[in-house]
């Protein structure tokens, strides 16, 4: 699942590090469910761990679903839930420095060149109001 946090016309991006997957590129705050938790609870937990904030669960809204085919290098396909987060408490900060090298508030209409390509596609689709994003399917 992915979180879209905004501040005016800006979107919060995280520079990936330490995972071997798109390291050095900008992505959205993201995570996997631990099991035994619903999607919103998992999202709130991930934001607490990654960004040191406490998201208001009632402000987390499913914005789009991303269905990604397996990448050419192999691996699984994914169905990702993309949530907008309307309210949170605390100051956004790097909570897991081994996984994030930088936080960037980027202008929605001028995203940096090094955004992970499927994240850029997802943000464009979200901005256009698309509810389903298909990546890598022929």
The total count of strands amounts to 9
Q: Give the amount of beta strand, in percent.
A: 25-35%
How many individual domains? Answer: 1
CATH class: Alpha Beta
Q: What structural class results from the helix and strand content?
A: alpha+beta
Radius of gyration: 14 Å
Q: Approximately how much helix is present in the residues?
A: 10-25%
Shape: globular
At CATH level 3, the topology is Nucleoside Triphosphate Pyrophosphohydrolase
Number of helices: 2
Report low-confidence residues grouped into runs of 5 or more: none
Provide the CATH architecture: Alpha-Beta Complex
The biggest sheet amounts to: 7 strands, mixed
Query: Topology as H/E string?
Result: EEEHEEEEEHE
The whole-number mean of residue pLDDT values reads 94
Measured distance between first and last alpha carbons? 23 Å
> CATH superfamily, please?
Nucleoside Triphosphate Pyrophosphohydrolase
Question: Can you describe what's shown?
Answer:
Strands 1, 2, 3, 5, 6, 8 and 9 form a 7-stranded mixed sheet that branches. This protein has a two-stranded antiparallel sheet with strand order 4-7. The chain is 17% helix and 35% strand. A hairpin with a 2-residue loop joins strand 1 and strand 2. It has a single domain, classed as Nucleoside Triphosphate Pyrophosphohydrolase (Alpha-Beta Complex). By secondary structure, the protein is an alpha+beta fold. The radius of gyration is 14 Å and the shape is globular. The longest helix is centred in the N-terminal third of the chain and has 13 residues.
């Amino acid at each position: 699942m992915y979180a879209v946090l905004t501040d005016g016309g800006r979107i919060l991006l995280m520079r990936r590090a330490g995972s071997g997957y798109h390291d050095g590129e900008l992505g959205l705050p993201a995570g996997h469910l631990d099991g035994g938790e619903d999607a919103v609870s998992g999202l709130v937990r991930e934001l607490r761990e990654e960004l040191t904030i406490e998201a208001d669960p009632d402000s987390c809204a499913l914005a789009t679903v991303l269905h990604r085919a397996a990448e050419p290098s192999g691996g699984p396909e994914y169905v990702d839930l993309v949530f907008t987060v309307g309210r949170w408490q605390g100051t956004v900060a790097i909570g897991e420095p081994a996984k994030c090298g930088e936080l960037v508030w980027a202008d929605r209409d001028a995203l940096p060149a090094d955004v992970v390509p499927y994240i850029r596609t997802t943000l464009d689709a979200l901005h256009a109001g698309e509810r389903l994003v298909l990546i890598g399917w022929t």
